[in-house]
Amino acid sequence: MGIQVERVVLRQIRMPLVHFxxxxxxxxxxxxMVLVEVISDGLSGWGEVTAGENPFYNxxxxxxxxxxxxxxxxPRVLKHNFESAAQVAGRTSHIRGHRMACGGLEVxxxxxxARRNNVPLARQIGGGERAEIACGVSIGIQESVPQLxxxxxxxxxxxxxxxxxxxxxGWDVDxxxxxxxxxxxxxxxxxxxxxxxxxxxxxxxxxxxFNLMMIEQPLAHDEIIDHAQLQARLQTPICLxxxxxxxxHAEQAIRMKACGIINIKLGRVGGFSEAKRVHDVAQAQGVxxxxxxxxxxxxGRAHNIALSTLPNFVLPGDVSASKRYWTRDIISPPVEVSPxxxxxxxxxxxFGFELDHDFLKHVTVREEIVS
Length: 371
Known about the structure:
The protein is an alpha/beta fold. The chain has helices at residues 62-77, 88-92, 99-116, 121-124, 145-157, 173-182, 201-205, 224-231, 247-255, 266-269, 272-284, 298-307, 357-363; strands at 3-4, 7-23, 26-40, 43-49, 81-82, 132-134, 137-139, 163-166, 188-191, 215-216, 238-240, 261-264, 289-291, 331-332, 342-344, 354-355, 364-370. It is globular, with a radius of gyration of 20 Å.
């Protein structure tokens, strides 16, 4: 029996962060996110567009995502008969770029299909062998080194298995040295969010002394060639994030030895179908992957949990507890992390959590039905 979507409901929600999150792009204090609900035969599937409020991480932002889903992606999906959610990405592939917008719709279709089949989303996408996933945590640029060290200590005490700290020119070598002095044995990585250029190679090579797990996306978002040249000069593995928007990009990067690790973000690659292809390419070449985060609400967080159950997700990802970001999440119960730094994979149909509809209504700032 095929899947035919009768209507798509878009909601923009506004949620203030518990603590500001700062990267080389700037500081975020609240999130404006687009949620996508697809409705068929009385069932709803839910997705989240993971674009930021500004076009800094990539070219997408909340406002553009709303228009792309409403005017282009949703009309291509409505009333079309799909044999499976795996066919959805093909209906929007002619839209150039805007992978996060299209991905928000695509993951909603996978959630809908899982609910129709009465199986957990992790199983529906081909994962689910793990009962729990290992969790790391991402810590933004802080106002001082002592504040950073205190925050790292808090997260380690909460059980997180890996610490990722954001860096940028002026907040890098000396800061990591202080962190390593305080925590000589923790699993530590640095994320530059494209803040450096190949001319900074000598500076980045200084990070080799700190036994980092990886340096994530040190160079520009579209510089696979420069990353290959940089990786040849570093002992520390480079992890690519923004550069990898498709399985083809992953193939190119691995072939050129531009990285030793890949961060897979559902939105960045356009949803589960392409994320699985990136995963498979990396696995075939012996390149480990992990799941990155985009300050998601509980819906996006639940999707990341499902993705992280695929077999080549062997490194702790950025999937952390709801309370790190939100005073109250839009799902119930909120995502929680065990004292040993793991999250249990939900076993209920679909993404596995209940929606807190009252709170969802409270944080919704606009809503529109496409039918």
